[in-house]
Structure formats: C-alpha cells, structure tokens
Predict the 3D structure of the following.
Amino acid sequence: MSANKFFFVFKDSLIESDDASMSIVSLRNPATRNATKYLFRRTSKKACNLYEVNCFNEQHRSWFINESVCSNGRIFLPTPIDPLFLVLPYLVEHCSERAVPLDQILIDDKFPCTSQLAEVLPADRLSLIADEKRAGSILALKYNETKALEWLVSKCHRLSKVIGTEEGPTARSLNYIKEEKENEKDEDGKSTLHTALGIVSDYLSLELGRKLSVALGFPEDENISKKRKSVVDLESAVVKRIKKEENHDTTPIKLPAAEKKVSAKAKALAKAASGSKSISSFFKK
C-alpha cells in the first residue's frame, strides 16, 4: 500500500518542457483567508506562473499505480489563477493609507511563501489595482479601490462573454430562454453577468464582493454572504465528521418518545373524576 503518492491531472503544455520545475505551497485563500494549496511553475527563462490546486475527493477511492495501490484516491487539478486576487487582500491591509514597497506588503508569518507572489506579478499589472509612488529605485504601492473595482468589473464582463459562448448546462438554459423570449437579450446578458459575478466573488472578501455587485448594477447581493456562510458551515461539518470517525464516536441517537393516544372513554372518565376526592382521604384524621 502506498499513501504518499498523489494523482494530478495536468495540461500537456505544463509538463512538455524539460526545464520546467513545479512546487506546491500553502498560501492564504483570498476570500476565506484559510490555507489553500497553490502551484508555482518556473522555467529556465525565468518565467513563473501560478495555479490554484483544486481537489476532487470521494470516500473509498484508491489508485492502482503499476504494481502498487495508492490509498490516497484524491484527484488534483491545477488551474490558472490571476495572482492579483491573492495580492489584493494584502494591499487592502497594509497600504490603504500609505504607499508601501511590495516586498514589505507580501509578508505573512504563517505563510512564508507569500513573498513568492512577487515572481508572478509584473509591475504593470499591479498598477491595475494600486497607485505607484517612486523614490529613486524604490517602487511603493498604495491601494486604490476605484481602480480595483474597475479591474474586477472588466473581468466580470469578459467572463460573462465566455460563459455566453461556452457549451454546457448554463449555455443550454440561456439558449432555451432565447427561443422562448427572443426580445429579452438584455435579461440574458444580466444572467450571464450575474453568473460571472458569483464566480469572481469566490476570490474576494464579502465586503469587496458586495461593492462589486453594486458596481455592476445589481442590488447588494446577499446571496454572496449566504453562499460563503454555507461553504464555511460545510467545511465545519466535514471537519466534525472526520473527527467523529477518527474517535469512533458511535453514541446512539435518542429518538423522542411517541405520544400516547388517549381514547374518548378515558378522557370522559378523567373529566368525571376531576372534582371528586380519593377514597384514602376519608380515612385521614
């Protein structure tokens, strides 16, 4: 049995190059701020790309690898992610009031690999969400919320166009709407834009997600907070279930006692006896 092996599904372009090296690190999730796995891919040309490691996991799943059995049956799928999403919370936290150099922004004691995000961030991309302040060779950044919202709005619109052209359940439902309501193209556009908002909001804080919703012309979307809360509750439930299984906690569940049915005759006797005294009361002094 082999448990220290992991099954990854890579795109061909990620592993075709012989000079590419890959490393998996833990960084803060930009929305939940919890630990999440990410993959850095580096080449000899000093090119570096960032990927989010998504995990598909089911119980009672294993892999047969050559002559061995890998009991870790999870599937890991690295997908590209815009590093600006991961940097955004640090900009909000450290340089909302003043300009700070990037190497002083990307500091996290619990996640020391955060500083590696500088490798995947060209300076011109940082200007999409921050103002640049230069003093000689020193480049400092100050978070600009207006710029950040403009960047997020444009990202939602681009994603909305992709959703509208992709084939799948969402596209089919939109085509059905078009057949039934040919004159309601605006509603179709709002539907795909709202879907894009939900996807982008998964990488934002609740406060910034609400501001993005308003900037896109939607009313303040309470579904964002509800969705985030449901995810947190689900993670908590999974952790509790795992702990329960590890502790072999098999405490039986007590079911409430069934209500006893009282016949009409018994009710009549009880009513007749409600005002009478018991026989033992006649023998008391």
User: Anything to note?
Assistant: Residues 7-143 form a domain with the N-terminal domain of TfIIb fold (CATH 2.20.25.530). The chain has a mean pLDDT of 77. The longest helix spans residues 222-246. The first strand starts at residue 7 and ends at 8.
